[in-house]
Amino acid sequence: MTQALDIEQLRSETPGCAISTHFNHSGSSLPSNTVLAVVTEHLQRESLYGPMEAAANAASQIDEARADAAGLICATPAEIAFSSSGSAAWGLAFAALPPLVAGDRILVGRQEWGGNLSTMQAAAKRAGARVETIPVNEDGSVDANALAAMIDDRVRLVALTWLPANGGLINDAAAIGKVTKAAGIPYFIDAAQALGQLPVDVSAIGCDMLKGSGRKFLRGPRGAAILYLRKAFLENLEPAYLDVLSSTWGEDGPNVRSDAQRFETSEKPIALLLGLGAALKHARSLGVEAIRHRIRELSGQLRDQLGAIPGVTIHDLGTEKSGLVSFTVAGMAPQTIRSKLAEKRITIAANGIPYTPLDMMARGLNEVARASVSYLNTTDEIDRLCDNVAALVQQAA
Ligand SMILES: Cc1ncc(COP(=O)(O)O)c(C=O)c1O
């Protein structure tokens, strides 16, 4: 039984809800008053008492944020590093893997985030290695059985974007994890759209690395992200660079920390991390199960209503779907839909090929409009969005 969320109360604590009809929670959601206050109050303390001195006083709250990040995904605090963005976190972990050599293979899901894919492609090209796409099931999700058939002793990494940026698909991350675990191959998960939207248990999934940004469904401030590295896995990773936090200077040179903070630097945005901490506490107090329940209901409703408008096509793959709803309107480019809705203070996104290149190209899509739903949205807002899309369909005809 999940707790019912008091949506009116939650919206009243979120100033952005009064300004616009926000359907871009997967790009960046609306922070609460509390998150805003935590960030700005720390910046004020920095200016009054000195940033280093203010940070020393905030140390236990940063520890709490780390514990809450761990709690959110059923990990331990020693397995959590903070980073500036999801992509930076992913890149740090990738760069710490043993170098690729000619003939090595990396297997990726078809919906892999474009940034991760570029990082892998560039490294593979330098080494003479290959990045290969795992086939998909009929519903568009990454096929774990097909992955199992691709495994050989040259596979160095399996990378999955759990919930892609270009629509409602939820991949079966645990099914992929079973295959990688049996084969003893490192398994990286991009959970950018999952954190704060779906319950996450890293042990049940069987991943070695998982990352996500704080600004999306968690509703934290921009510029803060969470990197999970499984304890036994991280001990064998060699960070691309070190500093005075990630290592100490010993007689024989640097001694690298044993925990995930080997991927952090001493200098960090304390105000943002405190804001992320407040957002994590809030999400956990609401309960991610309850959040998931509401997002499922609202996004299902949005999909049904949008899909019923003649001239609108829904592009979401998968069986069980996330809060990201992707669509196109006959005769109108997604960027035009986005900007016309913005004139009415309705915010959505438009995604081109670069965010999910393999999937977009495989499906012959150049761009989709994306409306992403948070628990903060209401059925009135869904009606408003759909009425306005219907009006755009008329204009395009
Ligand atoms: C699946 C996925 N991965 C990665 C990112 C990028 O994350 P960041 O901007 O924090 O690097 C996004 C952003 O939309 C995303 O949807």
Distance between the termini: 46 Å
**Count of helical stretches:** 14
Q: Sketch the major β-sheet.
A: 7 strands, mixed
At the third CATH level, what is the topology name of the largest domain? Answer: Aspartate Aminotransferase, domain 2
Domain Aminotransferase class V: 28-385
Family: Belongs to the class-V pyridoxal-phosphate-dependent aminotransferase family.
GO molecular function, one term: lyase activity
Protein name: Selenocysteine lyase/cysteine desulfurase
How would you describe this structure to a colleague?
It is globular, with a radius of gyration of 21 Å. The chain folds into two domains: 7-23 and 287-396, Aspartate Aminotransferase, domain 1; 35-285, Type I PLP-dependent aspartate aminotransferase-like (Major domain) (Aspartate Aminotransferase, domain 2, 3-Layer(aba) Sandwich), CATH 3.40.640.10. The strands form four sheets. Strands 2-8-7-6-5-3-4 form a seven-stranded mixed β-sheet, with helices on both faces. The model has no long low-confidence stretch (mean pLDDT 97). Helix 5 (114-127) links the parallel strand 3 and strand 4 (130-133). The chain is an alpha/beta fold. The protein contains 14 helices and 15 strands. Helix 3 packs parallel to helix 10 and helix 6 (144-150) runs parallel beside helix 7. The chain binds pyridoxal-5'-phosphate (PLP). Pyridoxal-5'-phosphate is lined by residues 85-87, 113, 161, 164-165, 190, 192-193, 213, 225.
